[in-house]
Specification:
The complex is a heterodimer of chains A (about 325) and B (about 425).
Chain A (H helix, E strand, L loop, with lengths): L4 H8 L4 H4 L5 H30 L19 H7 L2 H33 L5 H9 L6 H11 L6 H10 L15 H26 L3 H9 L4 H29 L3 H6 L11 H10 L4 H31 L1
Chain B lengths: L1 H12 L8 E7 L2 H17 L2 E7 L1 H13 L7 E5 L3 H6 L7 H7 L8 H8 L11 E13 H4 L2 H11 L9 H11 L2 E3 L2 E7 L8 H13 L19 H17 L9 H9 L3 E7 L3 H6 L8 E5 L10 E10 L6 H11 L2 H10 L6 H4 L11 H8 L2 E2 L7 H17 L5 H18 L4
Parallel strand pairs in B: 1-2, 1-3, 6-7, 9-10
Antiparallel strand pairs in B: 3-9, 4-7, 4-8, 4-9, 5-6
Helix pairs in contact in B: 1-2, 2-15, 10-11, 10-18, 11-18, 18-19
The chains are: A mainly alpha (about 325), B alpha/beta (about 425).
């Protein structure tokens, strides 16, 4: 009797693992392996989320373990949404978000475009450019605090050199008008390389044949840029914007190190404000409602954005 | 041999615990903490217990330690917590009440500086309910460049300009004159500035600074006859003038870039020779006195000056030492407090750089001349006032931090608006607390 490929495959396939372990089915064993991850996910992500939503309807304070916890309905939500100071922090966050994204996309894409050109040492330049994003935000914040010092900071001396202003006559992080820009500058310095890397991946994914075809059709460089490069890099750019948007919406450490939310409340972003409510004022129920509002905002905006991103990718 | 020494030590101090424990003491990371480590070696020798220390830098101290207390953590057996925490820690059962222990061991609160007992130990305030032993007396005061003040050319110029000697200011108006005189002045080829004051936003800095001026101008936390009535007291015309003055002092005379300065930034500004005057807690004085560049005769110290009406107050700092309720080594922790309360240990504490609050130490005839800053410490401790020590102090503090910083540093609104806003914020907090 000849040995068919089917027979050989049947012999090579080991008997079901389940048969060897007390009659469990393969599906049960699969669940057994997946279960720890699911339990962990439920414990550290889903349960806290549900618990936060529950707390958001109470007056619970974590520093009052003996106090009675009252159900306050939507009171926390009403207070937050009618609090002018919180809207100001939202405004500060929006300012930070918009300007960092605009600058990082423009500069990041430009750098990627330049780096993508074949020239000697572009690998070295790429490495040098990505260095800032490898640093810890707390370290960067501390480092730039010194750079911004009116008396000893190099940044002020550089501005002074270019403009002729006395370096100690202005304080980037002490002035209401300059402090938001001081943060935008540092975040842009730190995270533009990230946008650049994503754009570089996009640029390198465009086949040369498309440009060659365009050359045959005598399309100008400008035309090639607008009709080939931009549309093909757009999904990558949008992905970079999504990552940076989510990341900057919850920006905390860098701003705390640089300005601590000041001067006054000029650079108090929502994340800093939320931390004050939760872990300085210990208004746990109120802070939970605040966190839920921020979560819904980010989740909602990100969902809309992802839909748009998918549409762009499908074109 | 070690065991014998420990046994002898234990019997010498009358230790009650039968076994040796590892005790952890939690405090802020600053110079006095190092002095306490040195001092505690004596306790280890005498009691047989070993001491571990958990010190957290000031900006994170409250966050870290209040988290520890709120979560019922077992890290700290002994806590040298801030004076404002007493109300919350007492009401939430986070500290062990010490009355019975004090009675049993013969520790009398009358033996300590009254202001420190009220500030660090009592809750409710002005009642004989004790939750801590005064551990470290501290108060905001001023350091000045005595060597600059004594320069003949500066003396002459100041006298011509202001019609009086360049000397320690007795009032805030005089202090501002001095600060303005030094602002942007060249001394030994370096540009110097007037006064380093508290402006920090994140924790408690600007409140601790502004309050010094506000108290002396006439600010009161509430109606003395009707607790928690704030209107007309927090935002009285005197308080409004006080906050305006603090802003004027910041605008005219703070070194550039000091929009978020607290204790360490002010020390740096002073030690690096940037400023003529420094506002800071008294704990820094031993370090200033010992500093090679500005120490010894180069620096002098003075208590917070008086306001326009002659009132003179200073912001209380300092802490008491408490036994943490969740500690499993309470008996050993109480041994430490008993040891720490002894007069000879308190005297040694002062000699190492810790500010003892024991009257036997500070009222000793030799105390005032024992250090160049000792008299100023005594003068300052006699005029102290403290921030709210309510269980809701954190919310109250955050409100003042925001209102003061918005007005003084960011220049938003007027002093009256800032204090009216503070009345509203504090009223909201007290309404939540069912105080009305």
């Amino acid at each position: 009797m000849s040995d068919t490929p089917m027979d050989r495959a049947a012999r090579a396939t080991p008997p079901a693992v389940a048969r060897r372990i007390r009659g469990l089915s393969d599906r049960s064993i699969a669940w057994l392996f997946v279960a720890p991850s699911i339990i962990l996910l439920l414990a550290v992500n889903i349960f806290p989320l549900i618990w936060t939503v529950r707390l958001s309807f109470t007056n619970f304070r974590v520093n009052r373990p003996n106090a009675e916890i009252d159900f306050v309905g939507l009171q926390n939500y009403r207070r937050i949404l009618t609090d002018g100071d919180i809207w100001l922090t939202m405004q500060a966050t929006a300012h930070f978000l918009i300007w960092t994204i605009v600058l990082q996309v423009l500069i990041g894409f430009s750098l990627a475009y330049l780096i993508n050109k074949k020239f000697r040492g572009n690998d070295l330049w790429t490495t040098i450019i990505v260095l800032p994003m490898m640093l810890s935000p707390a370290v960067v914040g501390n480092f730039w605090t010194f750079l911004y010092q009116p008396q000893i900071g190099l940044f002020n001396y550089a501005v002074s050199f270019l403009t002729g202003f006395d370096p100690s006559s202005f304080s980037m992080i002490g002035s209401v008008n300059l402090a938001p820009w001081a943060i935008v500058i540092v975040d842009t310095w730190m995270w533009t390389p990230f946008v650049m890397l994503i754009c570089l991946a996009g640029l390198r994914s465009i086949p040369d044949s498309i440009y060659e075809a365009a050359e045959c059709d005598r399309a100008s460089k400008w035309r090639q840029f607008w009709t080939i490069t931009i549309p093909m890099v757009l999904p990558f750019l949008m992905l970079a914007i999504l990552f940076r948007g989510i990341e900057n919406f919850k920006m905390f450490d860098l701003v705390v190190q640089l300005t601590g939310g000041g001067p006054g409340s000029t650079t108090e972003l929502t994340s800093i404000n939320l931390k004050r409510e939760a872990f300085e004022k210990w208004r746990t129920g109120y802070a939970s409602a605040y966190a839920v509002i921020l979560f819904v905002t980010v989740f909602g905006l990100a969902s809309i954005y992802v839909k748009a991103l998918n549409k762009v990718k499908q074109r | 041999m070690v065991a014998v020494a420990a046994l002898m030590g234990a019997s010498a101090m009358g230790a009650t615990s039968a076994r040796a424990d590892d005790l952890t003491l939690c405090w802020a990371a600053w110079d006095p903490a190092n002095a306490l480590v040195e001092l505690s070696k004596d306790f280890e020798t005498k009691s047989g217990h070993t001491m571990k220390f958990e010190f957290v830098p000031w900006p994170n101290f409250a966050d870290r330690m209040l988290n520890e207390l709120n979560s019922g953590g077992k890290l700290c057996d002994l806590m040298i917590g801030d004076s404002q925490w007493i109300g919350g820690a007492a009401e939430n059962g986070q500290y062990v009440k010490l009355n019975d222990f004090f009675d049993k061991e013969g520790i009398k609160m009358a033996d300590f500086i009254p202001a420190t007992v009220t500030g660090y130990s009592e809750w409710p305030k002005n009642t004989p309910n004790y939750w801590a032993l005064p551990a470290f007396g501290d108060v905001v005061g001023w350091t000045y460049r005595k060597d600059w003040f004594s320069r003949p050319e500066l003396q002459a110029e100041f006298k011509t300009k202001y019609g009086r000697d360049l000397a320690v200011p007795k009032t805030f108006a005089e202090l501002k004159d001095v600060a303005e005189f030094f602002q942007n002045r060249k001394i030994d080829g370096t540009t110097v500035y007037g006064a380093a004051i508290y402006t920090e936003r994140g924790s408690e800095g600007i409140t601790m600074g502004a309050m010094d001026v506000l108290y002396s101008f006439g600010f009161q936390y509430d109606n003395p006859d009707k607790p928690y009535e704030l209107e007309g007291f927090v935002n009285s015309p005197e308080a409004v003038a006080g906050l305006e003055f603090y802003k004027a002092l910041y605008d005219c005379c703070a070194p550039p870039g000091s929009s978020d300065a607290y204790m360490s930034e002010n020390i740096d500004a002073y030690k690096s020779g940037q400023v003529a005057l420094q506002m800071n807690f008294a704990f820094i004085w031993p370090g200033i006195n010992a500093d090679a560049k500005v120490g010894g005769d180069k620096s002098g110290y003075f208590a917070n000056p008086a306001g326009p009406g002659g009132k003179q107050f200073a912001q209380l700092g300092g802490q008491g030492i408490s036994v943490v309720s969740s500690s499993e080594k309470q008996e050993a922790a109480l041994d430490y407090i008993k040891w720490f309360a002894q007069p000879d240990i308190q005297a040694k504490w002062w000699s190492l750089g810790g500010y003892s609050a024991l009257r036997a130490v500070v009222e000793d005839p030799g105390f005032a001349t024992s250090q160049p800053y000792a008299q100023t410490f005594l003068d300052s401790m006699a005029i102290v006032k403290d921030f709210w020590a309510e269980p809701s102090y954190a919310s109250l503090l955050q409100a003042s931090q925001k209102r003061f910083h918005d007005y003084v540093i960011a220049g938003q609104g007027t002093s009256k608006e800032a204090l009216d806003g503070l009345v509203k914020d504090w009223t909201d907090v007290f309404t939540d607390e069912d105080k009305y």
